[in-house]
Design brief:
Blueprint (H helix, E strand, L loop, with lengths): L3 H10 L3 E3 L1 E6 L3 E6 L6 E6 L4 E2 L3 E4 L2 E4 L9 H11 L2 H15 L3 H7 L17 H9 L2 E4 L2 E4 L7 E7 L7 E6 L6 E2 L6 H7 L8 E3 L3 E4 L5 E4 L6 E5 L2 E4 L1 E3 L3 E4 L3 E4 L5 H13 L3 H22 L6 H17 L4
Parallel strand pairs: 10-12, 15-19
Antiparallel strand pairs: 1-4, 2-3, 4-11, 5-9, 6-7, 8-9, 13-20, 14-15, 16-17, 18-19
Helix pairs in contact: 1-2, 3-5, 6-9, 7-8, 8-9
């Protein structure tokens, strides 16, 4: 943290804002933002000129770096210092250790994990050298902005909370503001316990739970395919959304399916009914099958993985347990 004062000064010189906010660090949370006065509004903002396209990022043993520096003009010195501060050798080592844990999973643990996570989380053969570390660091810090995926200095330090504030993407910047009692929190679009736990490496409560990816046979001979793409949705009004449904001669594909929505316990049943009306199958069959298959995958993960000797397996077990608790409404 010794260089952070200089970094913040440069950040502000290029149009960045840190108002009533202090950037702090802890072993468990990493970098986070703290409101200095809960009675006043806190503002954090990164201008477009300091956003780094993930296509311009590479990695070596010392951390992430910008491989096309000329694109960033006179901002490059600040950006280099920021990357050296935030995405350094320590960040790489953390992901290298996670990679070692995954590669040492037992066949039993791997079999259970493969039922709830897609292959890219545990099949690491395709990654060369530090490619895995690069992907994981970028995935846990990027945001979509103006049709690009970017890293946003300092604003990326704002952690998730289901009651956090939304990011503002207007006026040539990414910003977040509001009054906070202590830590400054944001709400992400893909806010699901499983996504938070595997994509951002922390376990937290969420307002939504989505089904794991599934494929199972339907009574009419077709296959039901459930994906996990909650941003692919159609508005129903009043803050409600439904999945995109694609039907072919052989299959019915849903972009996602909800298992929980805070404050609306019948939401999964409502979505099942809408799907039922469109594909002419009983809603109760859709709902029961999806819930049953999720439980068959999550329950072994929650109970058996936490007995593992592998740190990654135990962590995924904790994630699965929180997912189940949220579905059950016990959180």
């Amino acid at each position: 943290m010794k260089n952070i004062g200089k970094l913040i000064t440069l950040f502000r010189e290029f149009g960045g804002i840190l108002d009533n906010i202090e950037v702090r660090h802890s072993k468990d949370a990493g970098y986070y933002c703290y409101s200095l006065d809960s009675n006043k509004s806190s503002i954090i903002s990164c201008p477009d000129c300091l956003l780094v396209d993930i296509d311009d990022i590479d990695i070596n043993e010392n951390g992430l770096y910008i491989k096309h520096p000329k694109k960033y003009g006179d901002k490059i010195d600040f950006l280099r210092e920021y990357f050296a501060f935030h995405f350094n050798k320590t960040a790489v080592s953390k992901q290298t250790e996670r990679k070692r844990q995954i590669n040492s999973l037992s066949e039993k643990d791997l079999s259970i994990i493969s039922n709830i996570l897609p292959p890219e989380f545990y099949n690491l053969e395709k990654y060369n050298h530090l490619d895995y570390e690069k992907r994981r660091i970028i995935e846990s810090h990027n945001i979509s902005h103006n049709d690009k995926t970017v890293i946003m200095p300092f604003v990326t330090c704002v952690n998730f909370n289901k009651n956090g504030k939304s990011f503002n993407h207007n006026d040539g910047k990414i910003s977040l503001s509001g009054k906070f009692d202590g830590e400054v929190f944001a709400v992400y679009n893909d806010n699901d316990v499983l996504k938070m736990g595997t994509g951002y490496d922390f376990i937290t409560d969420t307002k939504y739970i989505f089904s794991i990816p599934l494929t199972y046979p339907l009574a009419n001979g077709k296959k039901m395919i459930i994906n996990r793409s909650p941003l692919k949705a159609v508005s129903m009004g009043n803050g409600r959304w439904k999945p995109i449904i694609e039907e072919t001669a052989d299959s019915v594909t849903l972009s996602w399916f909800p298992l929980h929505m805070e404050g609306s316990p019948i939401y999964p049943a409502v979505i099942a009914k809408l799907i039922s009306d469109e594909i002419n199958l009983p809603a109760e069959n859709i709902l029961i099958n999806i819930i049953k298959l999720n439980l068959h995958a999550l329950i072994p993960a929650a109970f058996q993985l936490q007995e593992s000797e592998n740190t990654f397996a135990r962590y995924i077990g904790e994630v699965a347990q929180r997912q189940l608790e949220t579905i059950a409404g016990t959180r």
